[in-house]
Amino acid sequence: MSSKLSFEGRVVVVTGAGGGLGKVYALEYAKRGAKVVVNDLGGSLGGSGHDKRAADLVVGEIRKSGGTAVANYDSVSGGGSNIVKTAIDHFGRVDVVINNAGILRDVSFAKMSAEQFAQVVDVHLNGAYELSHAAWPYMLKQKFGRIINTASPAGLYGNFGQANYAAAKLGLVGLAETLSKEGLKYDIRANVIAPLASSRMTEDILPAHILKQLGPEKIAPLVLYLTHESCKVTNSIFELAGGWYGQIRWERSSGQIFNPNEETLTPEALLHKWGSINDFTDKPFKPTEHPIQLADYNDLITKARNLPKNNDQGTIKIES
Ligand code: NAI
């Protein structure tokens, strides 16, 4: 058995830690020696209202068990720098940021108002931006940082009635992927989780016998592992529920190249080769970098230029 992962000396900020998943993370970090900033606005599932008790109760529970924690009641949207200030004022540093706070405003796209769209993006995506951005200079300076963005299967695959939520959640993927690249040489690692767990978010959607198996304590181990100083994983997306953990990654078909001559590179030429463009059976590629970082784009463009102009005869499969 490996020894227990300790967070002694680390300062962890968990947003939305007054309930649900965030509360479980906060308790577990504190149990393992971290000093925890328990942020929660204490609002409704839709984001209205506020109540300090949500964060206070969790802080009380941590202190009762001998742990160290402080409450912060700011909204992640507009309050990111104050949340980091709470960490610095009380504990002098910030090592781990868990972007977890969230709300729902589910409604079919036809009926979704600009306000319903913006409010959800504001809490999930802008909130994660603000907090991570406020913590970033400290992480750069200390050459250490761990960030978790909480996405959702809805963001990875889409979900009826959740255009706002899904857009924000996939935005969190792009944010983490970029932070992982900008942070790498400072040992700042950013990853994404797409969980499914029982909480007030899912209690009306899933049947009781399923909810029973989806306790948030089954999500916490991955969050803690990914944010430990010994863990070098970055730029990764994990889907998890009820004790199952898997990784999600991008896949690009090997595709089809055409001579880029405007007389023959037509919609009809694409139609003719559509199966080939979408064929994942022949050596698909798993990109993790923007194509401008990859030599293979240059190679493809050169190959395309050198093809015969008549694409019907001249298309070739990409050799990967
Ligand atoms: P929850 O509703 O129990 O917890 C969210 C917490 O965030 C609440 O305590 C709430 O007061 C707080 N919060 C909301 N807006 C805030 C704001 N502006 N500033 C600070 N705190 C705020 O929900 P749950 O399930 O624990 O969700 C945690 C995260 O996991 C969310 O980002 C959610 O979208 C995500 N998620 C949850 C899934 C699930 O199956 N429960 C599925 C996929 C993603």
What does this molecule look like?
α3 packs parallel to α4 (114-142). The model is unreliable at 316-320 (pLDDT under 50). Strands 3-2-1-4-5-6-7-8 form an eight-stranded mixed beta sheet, with helices on both faces. It has two domains: 11-248, NAD(P)-binding Rossmann-like Domain (Rossmann fold, 3-Layer(aba) Sandwich), CATH 3.40.50; 256-317. The longest helix is centred in the middle third of the chain and has 29 residues, at 114-142. Helix content is 41%, strand content 15%. The relative contact order is 0.10. By secondary structure, the chain is α/β, with parallel strands linked by helices. Bound molecules: 1,4-dihydronicotinamide adenine dinucleotide.
Give the secondary structure arrangement, pairings included:
Elements: E1 11-14, H1 20-31, E2 35-39, H2 53-64, E3 68-72, H3 76-91, E4 96-99, H4 114-142, E5 145-150, H5 153-157, H6 163-183, E6 188-196, H7 208-211, H8 220-227, E7 237-241, E8 244-248, E9 256-257, H9 267-272, H10 274-277, H11 295-305, H12 311-314, E10 316-317
Helix pairs in contact: 3-4, 4-6
The site of 1,4-dihydronicotinamide adenine dinucleotide has 33 residues, from helix 1, helix 3, helix 4 and strand 6.
